[in-house]
Amino acid sequence: MLYIKGDFSPNDSLAIAIVGSRHCSNYGSEQASRFAHLLASSGFTIVSGMATGIDSAAHSGALSAKGRTIAVQGCGLANIFPPENKQLFEKIFKNGACISELPMEYEPLPENFPPRNRIIAGLSLATIVVEAMPRSGALITAQTAMENSREVMAIPGRIDSPLSKGPHKLIKEGAKLVESVEDVIEALEFLQIDFAQHVRQTSQQAIEKTQMQLFDMSKLNLTETEKKIFECLSSEAIHIEQIISQTELSAGKVNAALISMRLKGIVKQMPGNYFAKR
C-alpha cells in the first residue's frame, strides 16, 4: 500500500529518477539540479528520495523549472526526513507528490531505505546516478532498475574523487554515460518517435534558456581588475591562488575585487577559497 500526499498526473508515467550521495560535491549538486531542471522543462517528472545532497538538488531543479517531482520517503509521511527539508517537502506535494509505503507515523529507520530505493526505480523509466560510493542506496536503486529492464545512466565525475566510484562502476558495467539531456533522450529509444521529437525540441529550448547570459555586463560597471578576474573564471571553481597567478594581480586587489563581484552577484564562493562564475 502506498500513502500519498499530493497528486499523481498522467505525465508521471514519464518519470526519471535522479539519485546520488547525501554528501555530494558542489559539482554533483549542480549537475543533479541542471539535469532535473532541463528534464522537467522537457516534460519529464523527476523522482528522488528527498535526502540531503543529490536528491534535494534534483527535486529543487525540477521545481525551479516549474515541473513535476515525486519524493519517495523511507518513513511515514508524518515524519519529514531529514527535518531540514520541511519546506522542500511542502513545495513537492504542491507540485507533484510525496509518497511512502509506510504508515504515517513510521520512523525513518535504516532498514526502510533499501525498499524506498526500489520504489524509486520502479516508478521511473530510467535512473540517473550522479555521485555515489560503490556501496550506497543510489547503487541499490540502479541495480533494481537494471533487474527490471529499466535504463540506467551515470554522470561521470573526477577520477580522483571517491564519489565518482559509484557512477564509474556503473558505466563499466554497461550504464549509459550521459553528459547532456540529449544523451538521456537518446538512451530512451523505446519512446514513440513523435514524443521523442517533442522532447528534443523542448529540451533544446530549455538548454538555450539556461545558457543565456544571466547578466548584462555593460550595466555592471566592472572595474578593469574585475574584468580581468572575471575572464579567468568559469563554472568550474578555482582557488584564489590560481586567480592571483593567472591575473598577475596582488592578493589584496584580487580579494577586494572578489568581494565586490560577489556583491554584484556574478561570482560565487565555495569552501576553501574557491570561486566560480554564477
Commentary on this structure:
With 278 residues, the protein is of the alpha/beta class. It has helices at residues 26-41, 54-64, 86-94, 113-123, 137-147, 165-172, 181-187, 193-211, 224-232, 240-247, 251-263; strands at 3-6, 15-19, 45-48, 69-72, 96-100, 126-129, 151-154, 176-177, 238-239, 267-270, 274-277. The protein has an 8-stranded mixed β-sheet, with helices on both faces. A 3-stranded antiparallel β-sheet has the order 9-11-10. Helix 4 (113-123) crosses helix 5.
**Strands of the biggest beta sheet: in what spatial order?**
1-5-4-3-2-6-7-8
Give the SSE order as H and E letters.
EEHEHEHEHEHEHEHHHEHHEE
The proportion of residues in beta strands is 15-25%
The beta-strand count equals 11
Number of helices: 11
Largest sheet: 8 strands, mixed
**Through-space gap between termini:** 44 Å
Please give the structural blueprint.
Blueprint: E1 3-6, E2 15-19, H1 26-41, E3 45-48, H2 54-64, E4 69-72, H3 86-94, E5 96-100, H4 113-123, E6 126-129, H5 137-147, E7 151-154, H6 165-172, E8 176-177, H7 181-187, H8 193-211, H9 224-232, E9 238-239, H10 240-247, H11 251-263, E10 267-270, E11 274-277
Parallel strand pairs: 2-3, 2-6, 3-4, 4-5, 6-7, 7-8
Antiparallel strand pairs: 1-5, 9-11, 10-11
Helix pairs in contact: 1-2, 1-8, 4-5
